[in-house]
């Protein structure tokens, strides 16, 4: 496992950031995968938001014949529950939490920090945000699943975190039923979860990008 870095996009206003959005990419990608999303969100020029897109380490992935590729954790089997290496997932989540803490130490209010993730990155985002000991501004899971739902130690500080879950109804990689079950489980635990379905596969669509932009503005304007 190498020590990866992250892509950092500073506010286009040129002013110091007063909010931060983390976006965690999916299997086989890197932080640059979501770089085009930032201008597409339509955030106003006055939004002093720093975007941080960490790169996953390179790991052998069992379901891909042991091929080494960017991965937050190993996927052991593509069964209904998606068997994963939870220890590796938690190490990745701890790394993200360390990056979050760095932003707090630099003066960003924890409640103006949002954690988002796509697919594998979403599973890490779930764990990192919901076990973080300080209140965060929001959690966004895109085309993902809650892999550690049965083992996570949920932090009391984030019992009120706004959660947005988005999934494609034609997703052949992560079935929508898997994404919906994680959202339903959190709802049953008393979390405020908003679920959105889109007529797409394992990707993002224009309507979703618009919804993400509005959601971020709502979270960061509160």
Automatic annotation (TrEMBL):
RNA-binding as UniProt keyword: no
Homology family: Belongs to the AB hydrolase superfamily. AB hydrolase 2 family.
Name of the protein in question: Carboxylesterase
UniProt keyword terms in alphabetical order: Hydrolase
Signal peptide: none
Domain Phospholipase/carboxylesterase/thioesterase, residue spans: 13-215
Protein origin, superkingdom: Bacteria
InterPro entries for the chain: AB_hydrolase_fold, LYPA1-2/EST-like, PLipase/COase/thioEstase
Gene3D superfamilies: alpha/beta hydrolase
Keyword field contains Ribosomal protein: no
SUPFAM superfamilies reported in the protein's UniProt record: alpha/beta-Hydrolases
Entries under Pfam families matching the protein: Abhydrolase_2
């Amino acid at each position: 496992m190498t020590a990866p870095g992250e892509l950092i996009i500073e506010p286009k206003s040129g002013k110091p950031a007063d909010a931060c959005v983390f976006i965690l990419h999916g299997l086989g990608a890197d932080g640059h995968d979501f770089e085009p999303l930032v201008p597409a969100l339509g955030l106003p020029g006055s939004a002093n938001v720093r975007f941080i897109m960490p790169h996953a380490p390179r790991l052998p992935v069992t379901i891909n014949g042991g091929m080494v590729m960017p991965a937050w954790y190993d996927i052991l089997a593509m069964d209904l529950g998606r068997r994963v290496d939870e220890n590796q997932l938690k190490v990745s989540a701890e790394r993200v939490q360390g990056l979050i803490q760095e932003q707090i130490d630099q003066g960003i209010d924890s409640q103006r920090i949002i954690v988002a993730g796509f697919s594998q990155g979403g599973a890490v985002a779930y764990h990192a945000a919901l076990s973080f000991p300080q209140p965060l501004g929001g959690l966004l899971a895109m085309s993902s699943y809650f892999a550690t739902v049965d083992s996570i130690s949920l932090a009391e500080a984030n019992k009120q975190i706004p959660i947005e879950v988005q999934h494609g109804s034609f997703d052949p990689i992560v079935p929508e039923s898997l994404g919906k079950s994680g959202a339903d489980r959190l709802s049953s635990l008393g979390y405020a979860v908003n679920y959105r379905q889109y007529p797409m596969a394992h990707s993002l669509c224009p309507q979703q990008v618009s919804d993400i932009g509005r959601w971020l503005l709502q979270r960061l304007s509160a």
